[in-house]
Amino acid sequence: MEAEWAPVATLIDRIATDDDLLRGVVTSVRALVRESAALTTEDIVGHTRALIFAATRALADRRGPSEAELSFVEDFAETRAKQGVPLEAVLGAVHVSERTIWTRARELAPASGVSSELLFDVRELYDDWAESVRSRLVVAHRAAAATANPVAHDRDASILRRLFEGGTAATLAATEAGLPIDRQLWVIVGHGADAPHWHAALRAASGRHVAARLGGWFAAVVGSPPGALPVAGSADVGPVAGYAGPVTPDGLGPARRLAESALPAAQNRGCSGLVHVAEVASLVALGDRPDLAAMLVDHRAAEWRELGTSARPVAEAVVAWLECDRDVGAAAERLFVHPNTVRNRVQRFVDVTGINERSVLGAADAWWLCTTWLAL
Questions:
Q1: Using CB atoms within 10 A of its CB, is residue 204 exposed (0-12), middle (13-18) or buried (19+)?
Q2: Phi, psi dihedral angles at 179 (to 5 degrees)
Q3: For residues 115 and 105, what is the distance between their CA atoms, to the nearest angstrom?
Q4: Who wins on pLDDT, 47 or 360?
Q5: What is the pTM of this model?
Q6: pLDDT tens readout for residues 231-273
Q7: Backbone phi, psi, residue 273, to 5°
Q8: Are 356 and 347 spatial neighbours (Cβ–Cβ below 8 Å)?
Q9: Strand, helix or coil for residue 325
């Protein structure tokens, strides 16, 4: 039995130490679970790495979850509850992670000497482990959510909610907060964990504003252009936040959604500081159309199959090459491969898909297709 399980241990070690897999998991969670955008990348990476490690150790030892692992799950659930992340979003992120991990396991299994029958046994063992973990997670999250201090009693949070409702409620809330209703307003959205930074920045700017944590987000409405705050490209910009405006009080709800969408888009582009939605408009537009992205992937399913085991490396090369402004050397350095490898993979993509990666629209289609592939 030990000899039969040896290839499984090899496969598990490859999964547990696969940094590309971790990046893929985080990308997938951000793309498919909207609430995760309120969390920092470091937060998602840290918890994901720990969960992968716990699961792979349990599978390697052919056992259920240990009490230490379940205690970590409880802490994880309590953290998400205190951050205001709904239980459904937490479970959704776990599901997305699982799907990404098992897709990678199926890809690596043949080279690791793991047969499809043995991989099925591993999956059954994992399902038993995961069921116990999910049960503990649900109980811990519900308990933490029930005892958390509700933010509904916070005056600024209450005003923000009414501002984002629009209509007469927004106008009355703006009046109550001392915001100008005859001039235009801006909405700022950041990670909840960065709230102290943005509160301090807003106080330093001295303008009229309302700011509070709403669930896992930091949100603010300001009554003057937020030019006094750190912006992308300036020195000491601090954490990233998205903002939108100017709008009238009636338009604060849609502006908030745009600012929320700008935040992950700015992160994906590597921005820091305050980033206006117009600065990342193309990423926001693509990210807000998951229906079209799903149809794009379905339409190109034959090409993905034709690329086979090289599909993910090819997609990563195309994305890196395009995001590095078609600089092969920079893309190679980013991927830790030889420049010729980047050239060959991009050409392979072009040969299989027929997309003209040199045209403006072709590059946009190639980038969107490959980033969506990588999020599967």
A1: exposed
A2: -80, 145
A3: 11
A4: 360
A5: 0.57
A6: 444 444 568 889 998 988 888 989 999 998 888 888 877 777 8
A7: 75, -155
A8: no
A9: coil
